[in-house]
Q: What sequence folds into this?
């Protein structure tokens, strides 16, 4: 399933970090890692989107990917299949350097660690939009697009 893709409208990615939150497990399990950027760099310049190859698109897994592009733009993608429905959201940030990108990822990790039980309760109660709103509210709280 490749319904979830990274848009290349800002150029080629130079850093990509993946966070996957398993909302089915008790307690929820969070995994995060930097990804090999070569899998996300197109060989053909006509390619406009690349599937998130490392994503877990099984029911109950929330994927959060942050990507820094050559242009200095950064996007955070939130997606998954939750209660049989696709969730897909994106927020843009301007990051000046690798340190800013690393700080953004630390914030994402912090939000997910502190909120995983709240996010799981939203999932159990089928309040899928609340998951999206919760994460976006904390991310956009202190970072500007």
A:
């Amino acid at each position: 399933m490749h319904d979830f893709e990274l848009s290349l409208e800002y150029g080629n990615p130079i850093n990509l970090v993946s966070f996957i939150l398993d909302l089915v497990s008790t307690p929820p399990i969070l995994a995060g890692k930097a990804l090999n950027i070569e899998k996300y760099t197109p060989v053909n310049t006509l390619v406009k989107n690349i599937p998130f190859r490392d994503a877990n698109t099984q029911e109950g897994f929330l994927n959060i990917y942050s990507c820094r592009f050559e242009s200095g733009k950064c996007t955070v993608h939130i997606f998954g299949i939750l209660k049989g429905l696709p969730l897909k959201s994106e927020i843009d940030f301007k990051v000046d350097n690798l340190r800013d990108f690393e700080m953004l990822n630390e914030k994402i990790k912090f939000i997910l660690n502190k909120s995983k039980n709240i996010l799981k309760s939203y999932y159990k109660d089928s309040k899928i939009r609340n998951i999206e709103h919760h994460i976006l509210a904390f991310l956009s709280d202190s970072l500007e697009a």
In short: Residues 73 and 94 are 5 Å apart (CA to CA). The chain has one domain: 5-142.
